[in-house]
Specification:
The protein contains two helices and 17 strands. It is mainly beta and 252 residues long. The protein has two domains: 134 residues, no CATH class; 108 residues, no CATH class. The strands form three sheets. It has an eight-stranded antiparallel barrel. Strand 10 and strand 11 form a beta hairpin. It is globular, with a radius of gyration of 17 Å. It starts with a helix and ends with a strand.
């Protein structure tokens, strides 16, 4: 996704939100779908267009490719759909549907508790039990709260890497303190990008938290962009991949 598209969405969201400390309510889980280990992150909303009240990102530990999800909460019950392709991603998560989203037949059916979640994932003839344990959370909508190590699996990825933001609390608030570049084959962080951010705005733009890092290609090179909050002072840092060192460097 290009930054222009995301910036436009961010402005629309900013106009639609009430004035409060923040709007991120995120819970992270680890567990399994059938016999397959997974990590899952969910962001809840009072309302997010088209009746969507939950968006998230999850990945199978063996594959390491983030899968965007969205859905609805009915009390403690969640119905979650998976984004199938870039076209659906733009229509549902970037632009937003003008009609109510129907989650009937979506793969995830979960019951959320204080300690985790349980339910099923089904598609066609396949159906597997889902068991999840809550491992971390953050909430900046009122009193700033953060529990555990909050690692956000961003939706952006390249053929080689995925990106995870480590969020923490400081005197200035909650924000992303570093970005990990994780090699999907080795499942290990091959680079960490830290932020000298006294105002604690890294990874806190008014978008879904999983959009705070975007990726595109320019001149044949992968570029990632890290969004910063800060109201009218919001901006972004762009990092370009050096094909020789395989490291991302701040774009000049």
């Amino acid at each position: 996704m290009r930054r222009g598209t995301i910036a436009a969405v961010g402005c629309l969201l900013l106009l639609s939100q009430k004035a409060f400390a923040g709007w991120y309510q995120v819970e992270n889980y680890e567990g399994s779908i059938g016999s397959n280990p997974v990590h899952l992150s969910l962001q809840k909303y009072a309302s997010f267009g088209s009746g969507i009240t939950v968006e998230g990102s999850y990945l199978y530990d063996t594959k390491q490719s983030p899968i965007a999800i969205y859905g609805k909460a009915d009390g403690s019950r969640l119905s979650l759909c998976e984004i199938a392709d870039d076209k659906e991603f733009q229509r549902v998560l970037v632009i937003g549907s003008k009609t109510s989203v129907d989650t009937t037949g979506c793969p995830f059916s979960l019951e959320i508790s204080e300690s985790g979640a349980a339910g099923s994932w089904s598609k066609g003839a396949d159906k597997f039990p889902v068991t999840l344990k809550k491992v971390a959370s953050l909430d900046d909508t009122g009193d700033l709260k953060i529990d555990g190590t909050v690692e956000i699996p961003f939706w952006a990825e390249t053929a080689r890497d995925r990106f995870a933001g480590i969020y923490a609390k400081s005197d200035a608030g909650i924000c992303m303190t570093k970005l990990q570049v994780i090699n999907k084959k080795t499942k290990k962080a091959v680079q960490e990008i830290g932020f000298d951010d006294e105002d604690c705005n890294a990874g806190m733009s008014t978008t879904p938290i999983y959009m705070n890092v975007q990726k595109w290609v320019e001149g044949g090179k992968d570029i990632i962009s890290v969004d910063f909050g800060g109201g009218k002072f919001a901006g972004a840092n762009d990092y370009v991949l050096n094909p020789k060192t395989r490291k991302y460097h701040l774009k000049k």
